[in-house]
Design brief:
By secondary structure, chain A is of the alpha/beta class. Chain A has helices spanning 4-11, 15-22, 30-43, 49-56, 72-87, 101-113, 129-136, 164-176, 192-207, 224-236, 249-261, 295-310; strands spanning 61-66, 91-96, 118-121, 141-144, 158-162, 182-186, 217-219, 243-246, 271-275, 289-292, 318-321, 323-325. The first copy, chain A, binds a DNA duplex through residues 3-5, 13-17, 19-20, 22-23, 25, 27-29, 32, 47-48, 50-57.
Chain lengths: 338, 338
Amino acid sequence: MPAIKDVARRAGVSVATVSRVLNDHPSVRAGTRERVLTAVADLGYRPNAVARSLRTAQTRTLGLVISDVLNPFFTELARSVEDAARALGYSVVIGNADERPDLQDHHVRTLMDRRIDGLLISPTDGGSPMMSAAARAGTPMVFVDRWIEGEGLDRVPVVRTDGRTAIRDLVAHLCALGHRRLAIIAGPAATTTGRERVDAFRAALRAFGLALSDDHIGQGDFQAGSGRRVTARFLDLPHPPDVVFATDNLMALGAMDEIRARGLRVPGDVALAAFDDIPWFLHTDPPITAIAQPTGALGHAAVRALIDLVEGRPAESVTLSARLVARRSCGEPEGSTP
Amino acid sequence: MPAIKDVARRAGVSVATVSRVLNDHPSVRAGTRERVLTAVADLGYRPNAVARSLRTAQTRTLGLVISDVLNPFFTELARSVEDAARALGYSVVIGNADERPDLQDHHVRTLMDRRIDGLLISPTDGGSPMMSAAARAGTPMVFVDRWIEGEGLDRVPVVRTDGRTAIRDLVAHLCALGHRRLAIIAGPAATTTGRERVDAFRAALRAFGLALSDDHIGQGDFQAGSGRRVTARFLDLPHPPDVVFATDNLMALGAMDEIRARGLRVPGDVALAAFDDIPWFLHTDPPITAIAQPTGALGHAAVRALIDLVEGRPAESVTLSARLVARRSCGEPEGSTP
DNA sequence: CTGAAAGCGCTTACAG
DNA sequence: CTGAAAGCGCTTACAG
């Protein structure tokens, strides 16, 4: 591949001049600029981004570490992040943590080694030494969807969805349909969304005069397998719950697997609801009631906040709202659209 | 962030020695190595990958350009690619083309600018100038899933799945269930998988003495919207088909949307089958008959081939086989598992 | 308006 | 076994 000096030679100028043309520096005579541009085109020259990054100490690249690419929610988030970043002239490099703290650390480290300009993280777990190190090193960082506490992490803006109202709406919906024994498949306690959704659920139940007994809280890990295991435990109870609320769509998938394997019916034998909405929920048997996040807006807001930080402007935390989409998996909704 | 000279100063050696320790060069005295390692740990030093890449002319990074991240097939492919690459000491940077040739070119260009060591592409369309340029520049390249023809592209190894046998199995299955009017939602003609699946379908029909009339071939683009539009056209026909075969899972989603919107039943009013299997197909109403690709193996084989090329070894094309997973969306399968 | 020169942070022959 | 020096491909003050 041709380098800048090849262009300079062909255009009969110095590399400094070529660089100026490439960077739209105003002080280049029109004729010179022409010759340089022709040489660039003739050679098919493209500046080496590696060299440029080394020299300018910026990579125009954002790192995005997500907990699980196979989770449609995160896939969509990643996509909207990439869209927003590209519109602002940045690339994004994705690291998939697979809900594993060690993999998460691996990606944060790798991204830091590549000197990305900023880090967008949906953290998978508590103590992450690399994340604290990144914060300490002054790397611009923004949490998206989830956040964790840790040394140096308290100043990191959080761009997230608040599901409390939607969860209360869900509980109201369930009560209206006559359900009283509600159970929840929680996400990892180390995760804010994991805790928050359980807290909101418990609070909503209390508001409706219901209790959340310990055997109706199942510990999941946001993966399908755990949803299935927890559901099995629920259904083995002497008094099984009459509705299971999975706090993410993958665990809802696992719950469906288990319910189906037992030949039970939704919502007749047990009702089902999920946090996070996905297109297929419309076509399951029955269509699944879910809480939808404004994923696109979330990704855009997170990128905006991060780039503000990267470019030296202050950034603030952002909280968006989720909303209930009632379908038929909890019983026939009263006249609402499917 | 500390640089190599800071480590050298603290350890009382030259930067050359620090570099040797970092790269496991054998000729460093044990005591010196100790001191360097201590300095590295004390400072929390991490080599700047940008500088290293500039100097060594390799980035230990692979570029992966996929047609659509939101398609679960590609998400899974991306994940297996990342897994395989990481195991071999490479990172991967993903570019999502969204089935848009311009975006595809944008990503190929960006990746080339970053001097990735090799390119894994699932091309979205015909003529891509950047891809030819990359090939001409001698960048190691491998096509995965799909491939295109073009200048300099004929030597690029292809790692893909052959669906012909599975499609024939599907047609046999459909015939056995009494279906005779079969229709197909094709992918973009510019795409090899798009053409191939139609060809295989037509050939299989012929083998069973059936014809594929033109109004039973709908042109889709591998996105849900097109699946819906094409299905609408099929259902508006004076003699609608009795089975619709969507050549990817997103178009199957669109087909479901349309069928459902019309209040029709699967498979009673119209049967449905899809290329590419996804977990939710088990829980739709009814569960959807699909052709499953060995996605994990595909990703691994593609990475292996690409890294062979990158490291100067020859690489060969690989073809894996898909298999039919019969469920209930085409009628009650004869004793096969759901 | 343009060029010569320094320097970003590394690695690696070349000496010793 | 270790160091001084060159150089990867850029950008950017500094001169002129």
